[in-house]
Amino acid sequence: MSGSRPGTATLVAADTRLRFPVSDQPLACRTEPRVFAIEDVSTTDDPRAREKATAQAKQACSGCPVAAECLKWALANPDLTPTGVWAATTKRERKRLRKQLVARLGDDWPGVVAEQDRRRREQQRAARTAPPTVRDQALARLELELVPTRPEPYNPWSQPITPQQAAANRRVLERALTGKAA
Ligand code: SF4
User: Fold this and answer.
1) According to DSSP H, which parts of the chain are helical?
2) Would you say residue 176 has pLDDT above 90?
3) Where does the record place the 4Fe-4S Wbl-type domain (predicted)?
4) Atom 3 of ligand 1: nearest residue by CA position
5) What are the pocket residues of ligand 1 if the criterion is a CB atom closer than 6 Å to any ligand atom?
6) Is the distance from CB of 52 to CB of 85 less than 8 angstroms?
């Protein structure tokens, strides 16, 4: 699945090491591409119109189920994401984040991040196939006893996003940049 948006010419090949995430849920940038076309917003009547549109697009990304993976893809593909908001970042923020990644992981940082992701997936696969230990089972039981009622899982597409959820998603995005995303 390409990360390009409707109406965007894609003559540049994407870096296939960090793929655009697949989601079975609707993505705001697909269902409402105009919200993300910040550069198309006219500032003739309202000098702050673009700023407001950017905030709105960032808010939409905060409720996105694939925000962390989208951020990695957007950072790894600067030629495909030269404008607009991607994963709650503007082009200037993406430029700054790329510089930080190069400083921390080197010029081939997408390769490093892709390798980290591959190892994480392997570990998760191994964890799924390995039966839980007696200790893990005891801890899980204890946790259930201590937390008898759990809140309903947040559904970003049927409920308005809360400031807490937006902040949590932002933290996921930031962790993705350090390679510590779950
Ligand atoms: S984080 Fe934003 S730009 Fe990325 S897929 Fe989600 S809605 Fe689209």
Assistant:
1) 28-31, 33-36, 49-62, 67-76, 91-105, 109-129, 134-146, 163-177
2) no
3) 28-96
4) 86
5) 27-29, 60-61, 64, 66-67, 70, 86-87
6) no
